[in-house]
Design a protein that fits this description.
It is built from 3 helices and 10 strands, in the order H-H-E-E-E-E-E-E-E-E-E-E-H. The protein is α+β, with helices and mostly antiparallel strands. Strands 3, 4, 5, 6, 7, 8, 9 and 10 form an 8-stranded antiparallel beta sheet that branches. It has a two-stranded antiparallel sheet with strand order 1-2. The protein is 17% helix and 43% strand.
């Protein structure tokens, strides 16, 4: 299974997380309250599998969807996946994913970008950037791991540190 399949898994998690929102009545309760999410009062640094991120003020973590160091064996490859999802009061999602494959050292050259992704540098990180309908995805390699940040286009560059 390729890295692309794990990226698709991350997007599927995001879609499943949004499904309960259709039952929320904005007049009675906020989206965050309904999902038991506490938004950060200020920009907050988080570390996922040794990679640092900056989660913007107003986003809170959907802890019931958090995956930390989940291990999968695919043939001879042992894959470790960490995935954290955040949401703000407007229902905007921010997904942070870190993948490590045992005995593989990810570099910019070993990443497989999605179709239409272009090389881009964000906050000193070289990677691949794609955007569709205001949602951006930036994938880069750090410390031998594949890192993916997905969210609103104007938020992605604020997250990468």
């Amino acid at each position: 299974m390729k890295l692309k399949h794990f990226l698709i898994i991350g997007l599927a998690i995001a879609i499943v997380a949004v499904a309960p929102l259709s039952a929320v009545d904005d007049d009675d309760v906020s989206i965050l309250t309904a999902l038991d999410i506490t938004p950060f009062n200020e920009d907050t640094n988080v570390t996922i599998d040794g990679i640092n991120f900056n989660v913007p003020k107003g986003y809170g973590e959907q802890k019931d969807l958090t995956k930390d160091d989940d291990k999968y064996n695919l043939g001879s490859e042992e894959i470790t996946l960490s995935n954290h999802q955040y949401m703000n009061k407007d229902g905007d999602l921010l997904n942070l994913q870190v993948i490590f494959i045992k005995d593989k050292n990810y570099t910019m050259d070993s990443l497989t970008p999605d179709d239409g992704a272009v090389k881009k540098t964000i906050n000193g990180k070289d990677g691949f950037y794609s955007e569709q309908d205001g949602i951006a995805m930036f994938m880069y390699a750090q410390d031998g791991k594949s890192v993916q940040v997905t969210g609103k286009a104007d938020v992605v560059s604020k997250v990468i540190v």
